[in-house]
Amino acid sequence: QGATCxxxxxxxxxMLTLQATISDKAGNVSSPVEVSFxxxxxxxxxxxxxxxxxxxxxxxxxxxxxxxxEHATLALNGAPVVLAEDNTFAAPVTLQEGANLFTLEASxxxxxxxxxxxxxxxxxxxxxxxxxxxxxxxxPAGGSVTVTGATGCAExxxxxxxxxxxxxxxxxxx
Length: 174
Prior knowledge:
Blueprint: E1 14-20, E2 33-39, E3 46-50, E4 55-57, E5 61-68, E6 73-76, E7 79-81, E8 88-94, E9 98-107, E10 113-122, E11 135-137, E12 147-149, E13 160-163, E14 170-173
Parallel strand pairs: 4-10
Antiparallel strand pairs: 1-2, 3-5, 5-8, 6-7, 6-9, 9-10, 11-12, 13-14
């Protein structure tokens, strides 16, 4: 017949040694036996060095670099990634046009899993030219003019460059 012993509180992290003895009904006690093991309930953490989460780029070729906090296996969207001896990684990826989501998952020897999500956006489509009918130019005064664009004259978050075709001078407006 077997015996079970359940701790009343969780065991602490790290190396533990437990000692067991058996006693019979007559009060005889066996010699102790020691069992050593490691308790690991902490998931590995994944740190991404580059690119940064939320990157907006027009370059489809990227390399995800970073590190894992402990010896583990690492997967990128389910595919294995090689970890160097110092637990760093460099995983080349090719972005698709639009939003790209990458899931990095590390699993340690105890089966603990840590996950990090990385959101990258590829935008290789140039913005449409500004709508001339939504632009207005003030009357020249003191050698300068004011150019105003109405709502909808350019794509949101675009940078406008106003250039003087005669002199080649330009001004960039965020």
